[in-house]
């Protein structure tokens, strides 16, 4: 599958950075502060599956999440996320100029593509907050949650992904998972026989490693059975793959990577997006 060109912008505090990317998802989502423009009064609530960085790596279950738009009567939008929806923001809105206000209680966020249920919300979202001894930067910016639209179809077989290549890896709301961002070099390819090849670079200038997962390992990882990979924590990793339609009706794909030193009772972990 040939990757499409897209543009994603990152809001981190009051700083807005625009990234031009090559991605296997499609469409454009602009994420920024609410400075300037008027909020679009949509008043639609969209439901999401929430993969939290501290949930068990074993299994394919996920938490609950939602994004509700700002309403025409001035109703405050909101985002529900975290383990079993235990956290929420007091705002979510999109301005007429295309900027997104993610609300409080979120340090940074990334939006991927446009939601078929509401084009003013993303198909996937990565939420980042400071976590002690984790993440990147002075504030330990860590990707704690990835929200995936409930309309997305989960894929459990590597053969269903054969021919797809994902060239962008996001973790900690950064391309490559580090500061400075690494916008090229990472690669996740699914081969014709259902195997997968992973090239990891993350934030460094050198390739961390090249690894091939057998078709059996790929299917296990897609079905919630952790496999050893080259991820930042290494020992246990699963992949949750999705096929979804965006607001324009295009069919696209994304893979959520979740890993930890231990499969349950996590005290550390990471969640990332291949796109």
UniProtKB/TrEMBL annotation:
Protein name: Lipoprotein
Entry keywords, A to Z: Signal
PROSITE patterns: PROKAR_LIPOPROTEIN
Signal peptide: 1-25
């Amino acid at each position: 599958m040939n990757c499409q060109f897209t543009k994603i912008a990152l809001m981190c505090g009051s700083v807005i950075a625009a990234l031009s990317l090559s991605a296997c998802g499609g469409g454009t989502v602009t994420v920024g502060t609410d400075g300037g423009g008027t909020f679009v009064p949509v008043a639609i609530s969209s439901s999401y599956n929430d993969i939290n960085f501290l949930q068990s790596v074993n299994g394919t279950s996920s938490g609950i999440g939602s994004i509700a738009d700002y309403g025409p009567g001035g109703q405050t939008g909101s985002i529900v996320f975290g383990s079993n929806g235990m956290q929420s923001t007091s705002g979510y809105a999109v301005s007429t100029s295309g900027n997104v206000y993610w609300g409080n209680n979120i340090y940074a966020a990334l939006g991927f593509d446009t939601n078929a249920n509401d084009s003013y919300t993303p198909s996937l979202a990565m939420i980042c907050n400071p976590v002690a001894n984790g993440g990147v930067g002075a504030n330990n910016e860590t990707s704690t949650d990835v929200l995936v639209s409930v309309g997305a179809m989960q894929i459990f077989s590597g053969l269903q992904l054969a021919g797809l290549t994902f060239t962008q890896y996001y973790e900690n709301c950064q391309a490559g998972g580090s500061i400075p961002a690494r916008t090229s070099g990472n690669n996740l390819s699914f081969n014709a026989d259902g195997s997968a090849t992973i090239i990891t670079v993350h934030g460094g200038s050198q390739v961390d490693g090249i690894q091939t997962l057998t078709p059996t390992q790929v299917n296990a990882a897609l079905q919630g059975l952790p496999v050893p990979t080259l991820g930042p924590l290494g020992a246990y990793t699963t992949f949750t793959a999705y096929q979804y339609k965006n607001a324009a009706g295009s069919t696209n794909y994304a893979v959520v990577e979740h890993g930890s030193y231990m499969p349950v009772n996590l005290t550390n972990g990471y969640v990332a997006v291949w796109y």
